[in-house]
Design a protein that fits this description.
The protein is of the alpha+beta class and about 700 residues long. About 30% of the residues lie in helices and about 25% in strands. The protein has 14 helices and 32 strands. A six-stranded antiparallel β-sheet has the order 7-6-9-4-11-12, with no helix packed on it. Strands 14, 15, 16, 17, 18 and 19 form a six-stranded antiparallel β-sheet that branches.
Amino acid sequence: MKKLFVLAGLLASVNLLAGQEARWIWYPGDYGIWWGNEIQSQRLQWGGRLTPFWPLYEPHSRVLFRRAVHLTVDEPVEIGADGHATVCWHSPSGYHEGSAILGKFTLPKDATAIEIKIQNNDRPPSVWVKGPHLVSDSEWKVGWTTTWDTDDDLPADSSARFTDPLTPPGLTSLPVERKNPVWSRETHGHGLLADFGEETYGYLRFKDIRGKGAVRVIYAESESEALAVDLANTKPGALDGWEMLMLEEGAEMRRDIAHGFRFVHVIPVDGEVSVGALAMDRETKGLPVRGSFRCSDAELNEIWDVSVRTLELTCREVFIEGIKRDHWVWSGDAVQSFLMNYYVFGDYDGCRDTLWTLRGKDPVKCHLNRIMDYTFYWFDAVEKYRLYSGDPYIARQVYPRMKTLLEFALGRLDAAGRPVDRPGDWMFIDWAPEPLHNTGGVTAFEQMLLVRALEATAALAKEVGAADDANAYLARAKKLRDEIVPRYWNEEKGGLLHLMKADGSLDEQLTRYPNMFGLFYGYFDEAKRARVVKDVLLNDNVLKIQTPYMRFYELESLCSLGMQETVTKEIKSYWGGMLNLGATSFWELYNPSEKGVAHYAMYGRRYGKSLCHAWGASPTYLLGKYYLGVTPTQPGFAAYEVKPNLGGLEWIEGDVPAPFGRIHVKFDKKSVSVLSDGGKGVLVLPTGQRVDIPAGCEISMPIP
């Protein structure tokens, strides 16, 4: 890729001026979109590259950055720009254009505003500015036109990760460390099989190459997958993750594209070539693990650790679904990754960038990932991001695109305003052995998600002052919400039926999905809530959920009712079952009744299942939110609640990340203590008593 880094590289000999830290800034969402495009192009399947089947968007190639100024003296500033830059300013005498010589510029004291125009056709245009009083941050406004357009008067995106004037965001790379396999052995025909001991992600290295020729490289998550090849003909059969490479005589060669795997099998197929050894450069985002959880149960501690490893592997520049197969950003997976991340890393930048990757730009051409429910989840994720991060700019930046996406979704409803399965849309819900929808029907589940999307958009509309929008969305949400229980409730079965058919009649299918969402969205009165728990969620005759994806919501609904003892048993059974089979990260789907290599099959392919899947890491969220019991009640944890629950354990202890630091909770049957680095909290004791936690203080209470 051609590099265009015009001004920032000229700052090496310039002494930085004192004052506030400057950040690189860019047009809202452009780096999330750019990074998403980069990583989603790396999916390896059937020997080639497989790119997403939904539209991808491009960042703006030309951006105008502006900041109003009030000076009393001429101000020297340093400027770094990733792209071709022009510096302009406004004063009472008019509009002026200048240039930055060696990255330095003097802004006249009569200037009322500074503008920097940047063009970059390879990466999102970005700028870094530092003066005694003027620095680049999200207080700058951005637009994409050559002359200022007030409709684009948005706060710039920025990140505390990008402050180095010599390294703009587009030229940064994730850290790597060398990793060798735990064992390797020669296979038929001078092939080489290596086991790296656990799921990993990075750049494969070929060492001690002898001769020249083509090799087939199989990236696998199990040894049987790595060996599932006709060695006589080197045919990959039904394998997904393999590619052909040409190797030449030499000491070492590094693959320039990262892959996910545990096992690697290199098989010569053409020419006289062999590989003496394999290694890899393991790539991670380098995020510190700020959250923690320990308890009296050793297995549950191991489940937490493996969940953290699973999440870490899928947290790239943006949050991807699985490391070996997809490299794609799926909304349903990502919104769960956000919640887990809030209790493990507190990586708010990664959440924001992934929200932008998913949303893209206008005009809206289809549902996110072409999936109706994935669109609805996104709105809720935006509101939760605002709550956990406290980001003061996101509402202003994202609301225009929330509104246009919601208008698209509303335009695909039926005449009664309900979500239906239109041609071109995919109503996913979950991977299940039974069909979960039919063409033209309305599921109670999708209707609940639409209500939540309307409510979340209304919350952001209020924040930006769009009161009329907010009121209209809330009125529409209430109308839809009020009809769900009366329409779908079946007294005999004790729960909401799954589907209203196109003719208005109800299908008799009873599933967990609308019922568990109805529980934690508060749709049921006390009597119906008890029926749903007994007759649906704890009823083994109702279709069981096999994916961690929907186990996440099922167990959250039980936690919301204070049923953590039941959830503890379920986590140990389900996630512990994967550990008992040797999992080093958690899977896309787990069926305890399967045996042997059947555990690796999915999508009709023998090794189609992902064994390191983002949605498999949900115990981190459940244990952080519902056992340690920490939840923000105001944006950025300015206020928060601690409502710990032992869940049948003897003791629990851990940290929850917050923008200001951490909230530490320690709880056993005799006492509870909370130590917070900031915010104003409320401790809720098992008796229901509420105790204030002053900002930055520690409290300790006996359990009555």
